[in-house]
Amino acid sequence: MGSSVLPDNAVRLPQTPQLHALLTIIRDRDTPRSDFIFYSDRIIRILVEEGLNYLPVDEHTVMTPTGVPYTGVAFHGRICGVSILRAGEAMETALREVCRSVRIGKILIQRDERTAQPKLFYAKLPDDIADRWVLLLDPMLATGGSAIQAMNVLVSHGVKPEKIIFLNMIASPEGLQNVWKAYPQVRVVSAWVDSKLSDKNYIIPGLGDYGDRYYSG
Q1: Residue 209 appears among annotated catalytic residues
Q2: Do you know which CDD domains this protein is assigned to (predicted)?
Q3: d(Cα 109, Cα 120) in Å, to the nearest integer?
Q4: What's the chain's Rg over C-alpha atoms?
Q5: Which of 101, 125, 143, 187 is the most exposed place for a label (fewest CB within 10 A)?
Q6: pLDDT in tens, 19-41
Q7: Which residue of the set 33, 111, 128, 131 is catalytic?
Q8: 128 is known as an active-site residue
Q9: Is residue 5 within 8 Å of 183, Cβ to Cβ?
Q10: Catalytic annotation present for 111
């Protein structure tokens, strides 16, 4: 995204040489599927870890094996993941590795051929999702249409926008702005922000269709 300023609700991962190298591998059209999955999973793990930094904590004191108390913090409240199908499912493994026994819901949104707008086709969410913090998962943020529709679904199920943390690997500046306009209270955490959208709404330079590369090769 160059020197452009991110919306107030958006943050990027630290732009380290390691992250840049990992993204270079998965952007390469000649990277085989096995490597694409392996290095994508590494990025997603870093992304999930960063997303957890935005959960609230309370002071918590424990007793150490030396008999000396230590005052630290403990997470406040329960969480769940919600993946936007199908690409979002690729992020579930990393979330489960970081958060034991985490509950995960799923939302399927596809383009309506008549209106060319995103349309909800399926949603399966935890019954108590309104009482949880939600990590919304989708690797790519292009126009933001699917993400905003997913946020609409979560809000309609009682989730407060300020309790949604949207995790994505690569975002477009346009998509970030659209999410900001629709839900400024939602925290958006991206690994990288690319230059722009093409006239066909593809992220440039992007990495192609994430779901196809992850699941089909």
Answers
A1: yes
A2: PRTases_typeI
A3: 5
A4: 18
A5: 101
A6: 999 999 999 999 999 999 999 99
A7: 111
A8: no
A9: no
A10: yes
Q: Look up residue 30 and give its two tokens.
A: 């000649």
pTM (2 decimals)? 0.91
Domains of the chain: residue spans and CATH: 14-215 (3.40.50.2020)
Q: Cα–Cα distance between 72 and 192 in angstroms, integer?
A: 31
Q: What would the pLDDT profile of 165-185 be if each residue is shown by its tens digit?
A: 999 999 999 999 999 999 999
SS3 121: strand
DSSP string, 127-142: TTGGGEEEEEE-SEES
Whether the CB-CB separation of 80 and 105 falls below 8 Å is answered with yes
Q: Side chain identity at 86, as an amino acid letter? A: R
The verdict on whether 212 is a catalytic residue reads yes
The contacts of residue 120 (CB under 8 Å, 6+ apart) are 107, 108, 109, 149, 153
Asked if 1 contacts 173 with a C-beta cutoff of 8 angstroms, the reply is yes
Decide: 188 and 11 in contact? Cβ < 8 Å.
yes
